[in-house]
Amino acid sequence: MRADRLVSLVLLLRQRGRLSATTLARELEVSTRTVLRDIDALSAAGVPVYAERGRHGGFSLLPGFRTELTGLNHDEALALLVAGSRRGAQAFGLGSALASAMLKVIDALPESHRDAAAGLSERLLIDPETDLLSRRAPADEVPDAVVAEIRRAVLAGRRLRIRYAAVDRPAKWRTVDPIGLVTVRDRGYLLATRSGADRTYRLSRVSAAQTLPEAARRPDRVDLDRTWRERSTRFRTGGDQIAALVRMDPLRRRELVDTALAVLDEETDADGRLRLEVTFQDARHAEWALWQLATDAEALAPQWLRDSLRDRAVTIATRYGAAVSVDG
DNA sequence: AGGACAAGGTCAACATCATA
DNA sequence: TATGATGTTGACCTTGTCCT
């Protein structure tokens, strides 16, 4: 709390010049005495703040003093900026605070770093709502040097040569036009185009990368969040995967989400039970997942899945000697 | 000289945390 | 759980400067 206030105090003095302890106290919602102690702390820490007593007195920073965020190197500033995940801030009601904080960080950056910072949101996306693989998975191991090289190409807008191994395929070199980087739960993806076609590469499958001198072909304005959503939707609905609508006990949500390939939609019914639309690898996968949840979950659709679960339950009940009557 | 205003000093209350 | 150390804060008072 106090550290936050010290930063605010310096920023206030920077923006508005000389301010009295009374004014600062009002702005920071503390007593004047607390402001004076904070000034002491700043002074002891080396911030050149000085006091002028008397009728028009107050506190000022030494002319020309800037907050030393310029001491950040390029990657440090980058990390700070991408850490302010837009969606996370909105979720916690901090959207406007984050926006102003980011402006201050950009303002404090050296000129040479500002252009790169301004275009970050078009090239880096952290933890989007849509996940390609909802099953729990270990964090990807990607060599720092490879990620750093890919990041350089993405931020510089250069073409990239990567050695990539698709599933069950040998690794081979390919030249791509990077669009952006996305991280989801410890996994990283490179969004790119190759010969004009959309491609998504999992970073853990890239064993080497080289930035090429030529500029990448890239759309003028990129909404990375939207691009990611479109690609992940195509991925999830492709192949033989099947979608199911499930009504279930919220306490067992985690088990279903960990088992399913992806969660397409989720809402809570009036009685507190969850209604989830999830995808499974195939019919057998769906039957198995729902069977594990026993009476805590009900498949509402598709009908064949309901029929399959009913038949299985009837078989088990009959085997153990119960008199079974099935409606509909 | 005296009042107004602002910084600075002292003290006590309170909250938090570590330790016995 | 009780106790002490530590950090934070506000109230009250003193000191310094400026203006009338």
TrEMBL record:
Pfam families recorded: HTH_11, WCX, WYL
InterPro entries: CBASS_pafABC_assoc_protein, DeoR_HTH, HTH_11, PafC-like, WCX_dom, WH-like_DNA-bd_sf, WH_DNA-bd_sf, WYL_dom
An example Gene Ontology molecular-function term: DNA binding
UniProt entry keywords in alphabetical sequence: DNA-binding, Transcription, Transcription regulation
Sequence ranges assigned to domain HTH deoR-type in this UniProt record: 2-61
PANTHER family: PROTEIN PAFC (PTHR34580:SF1), PTHR34580
Protein name as it appears in the record: Putative DNA-binding transcriptional regulator YafY
Organism whose genome encodes this protein: Stackebrandtia albiflava
